[in-house]
């Protein structure tokens, strides 16, 4: 009872914070981090010491998995060059520059532990990128690059952190050991992820019960990450690979009922976990400050030096990576030179999150030969980077996006493409109906033909640029009123005892499904 109470309190606060953020037009992650920072100093408020294993194995896998499920594999492949330049190149560059700056400021610290901190603060967070980028309404390609970067960069950072930690505690680290570590971690993660996609794809294809499909989808990320970690491979890479492959094949693997249920289930899971993650990050402030014993002047200098380095290295890397690549003719032909607005907004969106804090808490307690070092200072620096990037950059990202006036995705082109494909799909449906028409009454066939025509007309109606109500919108408005009237009749019949509760539930279910479809059409 007592152990469950704080969890319920945190969930309630996370829900309240998300609701308040929507009411005020703010980004929920920022509001929840600020809530956490304030609540961390409230006397008697429950405090939870964040366990790195809980974050990296318990919270991160499902969030990475659902993000990978929703990532377009063709878009990911089309943007693989900028994604890898950020997820691998930028992470390594940031880690080494931050490590060098910290080593210059604290020369008594071995470079290996300084590099470990660089690896901790280098990767932008998958949860923050997904939660903020889509909410801000950035162009589709920018969102794809940011999400692709955040899916892969944790693996780069964690491998580098593992190598730096080995050197920190006195293990011999040579080129051969680094190569073996990278191969085992990344290569092993890819193999396990591909095997997981094969096994769980097979199971999804054989399951017909939506509830069992839903249960399996919850098990998948944990099963994959536990297997990878047991074999000392990268659980992050394994989960991402499994999610990308299954997400791409999901239309062939699941029934319509399973897809609808799984989609709703994962929206709830992501909402709750993201809220808890950002709230817990803020709540760690009191614990982080408790063990600090650095002089205030030195603390401020080191903190601002690390913050400035983290912020600037992203831009220093982005502009050459964006424009020097266009000197290669093949790259220039495939990808036109973008406006400077794009590297600016991608640079501004480098928000850190819970993975950075978890990695910082996983730093070794002592150096080689049990030599102490200012571990609390390094944890504070990681925490400061999270708060600065998430609250500072995240809060100003919508303003920066508006000021840059990024060219939005063309809704007319999207609607035109959708209408053209819908017409092709309708033609295929008509052809199939013609083949089977003899097996059904003429009235049924005519009704099906009208339904196909309505879907085609609805797709083309979206191309109309005026504000007048389209026939489909008029249909939706009137049908909604009719559905409300039907519900009133069924409810009154249940209340008067003319029908049992089960009949009401089934009728409401059918009407709810139709109303959900109407609302989707209106979007």
TrEMBL record:
Domain Cation/H+ exchanger transmembrane, first and last residues per copy: 12-401
Regions annotated as coiled coil: none
Alphabetized UniProt keyword annotations: Antiport, Cell membrane, Ion transport, Membrane, Sodium, Sodium transport, Transmembrane, Transmembrane helix, Transport
Gene3D superfamilies to which the protein is assigned, alphabetical: 6.10.140.1330
GO CC, alphabetical: plasma membrane
Lipid bilayer topology: Multi-pass membrane protein
Membrane-spanning parts: 27-45, 54-76, 82-106, 113-135, 182-203, 215-247, 268-285, 297-321, 342-365, 377-400
A GO term for molecular function: potassium:proton antiporter activity
Transmembrane helix keyword on record: yes
Domain of life: Bacteria
BP-aspect Gene Ontology terms: regulation of intracellular pH; sodium ion import across plasma membrane
Protein purpose: Na(+)/H(+) antiporter that extrudes sodium in exchange for external protons.
Family according to the record: Belongs to the monovalent cation:proton antiporter 1 (CPA1) transporter (TC 2.A.36) family.
Protein name: Na(+)/H(+) exchanger
Organism of derivation: Micromonospora noduli
